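Title: [Solved] Stage V sporulation protein AD 3D structure

Original question kept below for reference.
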Amino acid sequence: MNQVKGSQSISFGESPYLISSGSVVGSKEAEGPLAKLFDMTNQDDLFGAKTWEEAESNMQKEACVLALGKAHVTPENVRYLFGGDLLRQGIATSMGVEELQIPIFGLYGACSTSGEALALSAMSVAAGYGDYMLAVTSSHFGSAEKEFRFPLGYASQRPLSAHWTVTGSGAFLVGTQKSHIRISGVTVGKIVDYGLKDSQNMGACMAPAAADTIIRNLLDFERKVEDYDRIVTGDLGYVGQDILFDLMQGKGYDIKTKHMDCGMTIFDQKGQDTHAGGSGCGCAAVTLAAYILPKIKKGEWKRVLFVPTGALMSTVSFNEGASVPGIAHAIVLEHC
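Solution (posted by the thread starter after getting help):
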């Protein structure tokens, strides 16, 4: 029987399985430390398209096809698709998965969207609403820069606190079909706003939300930090990680030996000049698909807390001088 745990979490009685995944990335990611682990890389960041936005849609479609193909599942067998991206009205998702003709829920959780999609997919399977759910997210450096900052041709100087948006898409098939990875629980995050307004320092904006969700997960499930082999955040980067450690220690938790951040893992900070690290919906998604899940599948990590983080801003809120709230969702992944 599924159980409501504490104030924000759910423990699944019959845990849904994370059956398969697909990862698609661009040229800069293909030059990074995880290069050989991705399913598909492309030196042309346009992916055969005419615009950055269309390229991002193409990545989403390819990631979904890869995830379905690995499990030998057709789109017709997928009950619902949960997907999102960073663009206005989620056009990368709606245009990318259109051909699959799967009933879809469009999501926006900024860079935490992969966690939101996985949580809703797992909850839907555990509730008996279908045998297969598909979760997909994406981001693209070119489309994100044009959406939130400046056109690439503007050549603006990036501060050291800035992140590099990952060009990538990750898709995940969640269902009742047994695999070596199960989603045993989720902790849905709250919006946490410390009043920060610097969109070029998203690590600082997101770290409070990450700390809040991680602590809530530990309290709801009555666990200790040591009960996880890794606590993985989405894209806090080097700046956000330091803040996360300080916030956690202030509450009596030390996660330094267990923590990993996808934004710090996907790029070589110095060699690739990515400043604070990677970000974007695709950052946590492709790192989970290519690097984290294989380790869980092999049993190297028995239990992982996957915590994608998001900075909830828009061009409208930025132009109006609003703060940048953060959010983080936690997914408990276990080897089985």
